Amino acid sequence: MKAVTCTDAKLEVVDQPTPTPAKGQLLIDVLRCGICGSDLHARNYCDEVAEAMSETGYPDGMRSHESVVFGHEFCGEVVDYGPGTRKAPKAGTPVVSVPFVRRGNAVHGIGLSAKAPGAYAERLLIEQSLALPVPNGLPAEHAALTEPMAVAWHAVRRSGITKKDVAIVIGCGPVGLAVILMLKAIGVRTVIASNRSPFRRSLATACGADIVVNPSEDSPYASASGHGHLETLPQALDLALGTVEKLHRLRLPWWHVWRAAEAVGAATPKRPVIFECVGVEGIIESIVTGAPLAARVVVVGVCMAADQFRPSMAIFKEIDMRFVLGYTPLEFRDTLHMIADGKVDVTPLVTGTVGLNGVAAAFDALGDPEAHAKILIDPRSDSASPTP
Ligand SMILES: [Zn+2]
């Protein structure tokens, strides 16, 4: 079979033996595989990622000198299954899968380790237990987006946002766009999106963002004003003192009233929820500086470099910061069904498709934010450059 390998940052189409499924595994024909920003990053910086992973106890992250097949956002068709695999889906069944596979005692991320080749290939192995049949005749080009959409679904769930909260999405690459889609899918009324690129802003609008700003001209945080957020420290102090004074004038024991207000959530300041979907140095500092008081920051973008921000600024504003990673198998499953049931329309995300021989060109094209968001690989196509 054909596969695209990455060795020392070089992408190459090679012939490889088709893998044989072990017990509990399925062999699938790849229908579509998304090119992820993390693949672009891994091409040049996988050693740093592998180093950080090994510090958290996983020693098998990909290394630049290894021959690695990327691809963790895929949809495929069942071809075969390993011996003793019970209740394997019939051949020809379209499936998606959480991209993890067992080898011996270890679990590897598919397309993220040399030990688990990914879907930049005609075929690959997946775990039957993690495979999910694609429902409702959902086309492969949409089913393949289950994985990146599940990342966004996890981020939105972890954010604890409600429909009434204002969401501010910083960065409208595939991750930011997926977050916007999920926020609108759950009915968040005000979603503000920010990106320098006009093309990315037009995609944000297509994904349902209510207000779209160019941060070189307008502040996304200023666009969130008028929603009752506390903007400055004196405002917060004035509110606290003013409330006590008012209750004094009413001759009420202010502490009882305050406690009762706390119990029903009326004493909690209104907060926007800010999604960091950029992942470069300095972005957290710029968010902490620009955000209103009590804002919640959800860090979805992956910045691999050491970064700096002023904790004092986060303290003065009592910023709440959460970091998110991946998704649970349940979130992955629910995401597939949200897409298949039409609760979320992923159409605006895909900007092009290429064959295996066009992967290197697609990586170059993705370097230009004006050109593309998500490019899918179709191993049966021989298109050498991304076409809509
Ligand atoms: Zn990814």
Helix content: 25-40%
Rg value: 23 Å
Backbone structural class: alpha/beta
Biggest sheet architecture: 7 strands, mixed
Number of helices: 11
Tally of DSSP β-strands: 17
Query: What order do the helices and strands follow?
Result: EEEHEEEEEEHHEHEHEHHEHEHEHEHE
Mean pLDDT value: 95
The CA-CA distance between the termini, in Å, is 26 Å
Low-pLDDT ranges? none
Ligands, deduplicated? zinc ion
Walkthrough of the structure:
By secondary structure, the protein is of the alpha/beta class. The protein is built from eleven helices and 17 strands. It has helices spanning about 35-55, 140-145, 145-160, 175-185, 200-205, 235-250, 255-265, 285-290, 310-315, 330-340, 360-365; strands spanning about 1-5, 10-15, 25-35, 75-80, 95, 100-105, 105-110, 125, 130-135, 165-170, 190-195, 210-215, 275, 295-300, 320-325, 350-355, 375. The strands form four sheets. Strands 3, 4, 5, 8, 9, 16 and 17 form a seven-stranded mixed β-sheet that branches. Helix 3 (about 145-160) packs across helix 4 and helix 3 (about 145-160) crosses helix 10. It is elongated. The protein binds zinc ion. Zinc ion binds near residues 36, 72 and 73.
